[in-house]
Amino acid sequence: MSYEVMLASDGSHIRIRVLKNVTGDLEIMFSGAAIEEARKYGLWKFLADVRGVRNVASALEQYRLGYDEMYRLALDRTSKIAILADVGDDSHDFVETILRNAGFMCRLFTDEPSALKWLEVERTA
Fold first, then answer.
1. What are 80's strand-pairing partners?
2. Helix (H) / strand (E) containing 30
3. How far is 118 from 52, CA to CA, in rounded Å?
4. Which residue of 1, 14, 72, 113 is surrounded by the most CB atoms within 10 Å?
5. Each residue of 34-90: pLDDT tens digit?
6. Sheet strand arrangement including 14-18
């Protein structure tokens, strides 16, 4: 398997662990699985752990993810997405920018406690 999607042990968010370099197809697959899991619990907070892997998707694939696929997959507009990457790995920066520009609340982190704290804070307009 290229990824794992599960409810966090404390029930506060959907956890995605990506296990190989992120391609456009892989982004769509794990995003769809995470959104399906979120629907089961009515829980729209996500932690995407991409530590140890790089984003190798093209700029066009990342653009399509934010502007086409997230709408097709019906990602709830109230969602919060924390991306947890390695220090010094800037390969995930563009997907954060794309998702934010597409109107989704997304933020990139390099330490898990900060990402989890941000997810806890209720979303404001």
1. 45, 105
2. helix 24-41
3. 22
4. 14
5. 999 999 999 999 999 999 999 999 999 999 999 999 999 999 999 999 999 999 999
6. 3-7, 14-18, 45-49, 80-84, 105-109
Name the residue type at position 104.
Answer: F
Does this model's pTM top 0.85? My answer is: yes
DSSP secondary structure letters along 58-125? -HHHHHHIIIIIHHHTT--TT-EEEEE--TT--TTHHHHHHHHHTT-EEEEESSHHHHHHHHHSPP--
* Token pair for 64: 């399509």
14 in Cβ contact with 41 (< 8 Å) = yes
Locate tokens 């989704």: which residue? 104
Nearby residues of 125 by Cβ (< 8 Å), 6 or more positions away: none
- Residue whose C-alpha is closest to residue 16's, from 77, 88, 109, 82: 82
